[in-house]
Amino acid sequence: MHAAELFVVLAVLFGAQGETIEAVENNGAFECPCLQKIPPLARTALDELGYPPGFGKLCKPHDENVVMSGCQTGNTNMPSYCTSPWCYVDSETCGINEEKCIADGGVIGSLASPYCRSRTRTSSPVLDGILNTTAETFYSYDACGYSDTYDSSVSLSLPIQGHNIHVALSEWAPWVIRGEVDPERPYWKGWKGVLVDLIDTMVVKASLNLTIAPAEFATTQSRKMFPGSSYTACVFDVKVGSVDLCIADFWVTPERMGMSNFLSPFAQDVFYLLVPDQIVPETIMSMFEKPFKPFSWELWGLVFGFLFFSGFVNMLADNRNEDDFQNSHPVARVFKATYLSFAGYFQGGAVNNPTSAPARVAQLGYGFFILIILASYTANLATILVAKSGKTGIDSIQAAIEQGVSICVLSAVHPQALTKFPKANFVIVSGSKQQIRSLTLGKCKTALIGDQRIGTVFSGYYNKLDCSLEDDNSTLACLRDDEGNPDDTRDCNKFKKVGEMLFSVPLSMPIASIYEHAFSFYMRDAQSSGDFDKLLQKYSAETPTSVCSTSMATDENKLSLPWSSMVGTVMISMIFQFIALALCGVEYYRRGLLSELCGCTRLKLLSDGADQDDAEPDQDVVKDDVKAGARVVMDMNKDMSTDSSHHVPIVMSTGSVENHNTEQSNQTTMLKEEIKQLRSEVAANQSELSEKLLEILKNTGRAKTYNI
Predict the structure, then answer these.
(1) First-to-last C-alpha distance (Å) of the chain
(2) pTM for the full model?
(3) CA 569 to chain centre
(4) Contact 310/577 with Cβ under 8 angstroms?
(5) Do 489 and 460 form a contact (C-beta atoms < 8 A)?
(6) Tens digit of pLDDT for each residue in 276-330?
(7) CB 59 within 8 A of CB 86
């Protein structure tokens, strides 16, 4: 009889002790069955703690409605484990026993015997702490087909609890910083930083003993094997067991992953091209482009588009304005409206004089647009004009490849860089310090560098390093100020970041396999809970920051305002334009000026002295009268022209009508008499004459000013 069959028979036989067939079906996994009987000591301890009878037997959600488990009824924040089935299990059966597995005719991983496979089981800290015996009591969620969410951190740390972990550290702020010894954790010997604090949390939770490696980051043997990178050497130390964990910001590369396990990544390092910031003369074309730099080409298109549209709206809304539109031909009006719109933009304000209400509304939107656009242009142009006008001639990795210049790259990321840019002329250097030094001394023309290090370049760190290593025979490019101190701004005028992101590499730490699972869980938990961000904020002051002014490393093209920055301005201005179009449509539909439709027209055809027939009319009043009644005067002129013996033309001009002879004087007298007659008619029937004169106004397209 096979062991599996024997197991089922035994389970049925145990039914005499109160177990049922249903219980056998819930008895856990084949390779990790639930205990049929809780050990007496464990059962007594559970009773004393107040746990209900049957707690831990068979696959059931035993914590459901149990106060001691935090799963009491009414709990609004019910943990997920409250409804997850589990049971106490036999540790021996749950584990793999190769000898018994083979004896049952199986191999590891087969289903021939429960000893050939295993399920995760966890020692119960509650019972083991109370019983205080060498015999451990295990429980398992996996045996019942569920995940253990009761205490993941505890269950993960149990396999490594009490171990001694051997670590090596490399200083690089804000990840790892060397400082004064902290009395609360002297075992760190003054080390602190984002990664140190994270690892310390894990050390405390797992009750680990910490041993810090000597001052050298990697052993002498591993450094000899990997002279190009002390980081890769430390990864090798983890592989061979010299240390259990290297604490620093490691690039996770295929070569390193082939040596050791890594924790869950905690950041990404993004790589850019760093080039010498050398000034070259500007070309004639670049000088011509300078005035257009404040705006992107998309924004210039938006500006010109609005100016064309605004001119079109003005042409429609102010179609009776003869002062701005002397030529009534449609094509001429379009060109004149476009000219007025662009002329107003270039002169900083409207150059036309709108006469209609819709045109004045459109003018408000046009004025707002000019105000914002010109202010933005002026401010941005000033910034560009005072910025450095020179360029290095290398503004991208493609330009560097085409020119065949040397590119310094660290050995750790060289394979990835070469795969992505196979035609590049890479020069391999051993570390970031050597990389910047080679760039400073001109041994390579450009450098492929991670964003994590770029801030350090402009902080003065590398100049301080060069000055600290300087001696009489040194070729280091140390730069000191007038007082003899290292000049932090040495690299501000020497380098700048150009182009787009080239590629990225995850950051993590190499760790021995026995610690990987628990420490990776802690790392991800710290990131998801926000603890990682809090640590970054805590050590933000320790992070190297640029001491360079923003103008030192500013790309002119990046100063150009994008089109999206003016969308709000254009939308507000367009609202006024559309309101003007709507009002223009009302005028067209009602066949009259908006002021007339609203009853606001004031026809100044008569003066208050209408009853003084012999009095000489006021010249200003006469002008207004003649303007308003131009059509009547023109008709009178046509009637008189039928009698050639009395034909005296009326001279129409914007100047004056000179009385050069007697005939012209008589004509003027006749005109005055006609106006007096009009006054009489208005006095008799003002309403009827107003309608007549309104009709006259609609046909006075050729009317001019008459001086009498």
Answers:
(1) 135
(2) 0.54
(3) 22
(4) yes
(5) yes
(6) 876 556 677 777 777 788 888 888 999 999 999 998 998 888 888 888 888 888 8
(7) yes
